[in-house]
Design brief:
The protein is an alpha+beta fold. It has a single domain, classed as HIT family, subunit A (2-Layer Sandwich), CATH 3.30.428.10. The chain is built from 2 helices and 5 strands, in the order αβββαββ. It has a 5-stranded antiparallel β-sheet with strand order 1-2-3-5-4, covered by helices on one side. β1 and β2 form a beta hairpin. The longest helix is centred in the middle third of the chain and has 17 residues, at 58-74.
Length: 113
Amino acid sequence: MADCIFCKIINKEIPSKIIYEDDHVLAIHDIEPVAPVHILVMPRKHITGIAAVTDEELSNIGHIYGVIRDIAKKMELNEGYRVVLNHGQQGGQTVNHLHFHLLGGRSMNWPPG
């Protein structure tokens, strides 16, 4: 999608600090972290949010969770971490491209706020 900031990052039109990439997924450091470790993990394919995921794309969502697991291990988040997926305006989604936040390196409170 032409006006999607994450699509521009995926297409290398906007620089980012990439921590992982493969044919299906890109993971980058968030530019406004809310934790010592704050990684965004997103599919390369533009999907507006979790409600737009088709049955055919479900295996890619599983792959994303595997990538998150591996990044958490690489980042030595042995004491725990949080994975957040926001959907829609009321859910706190600010970029309409499916993405997961991997947060760690500090204690997480609940409810988050």
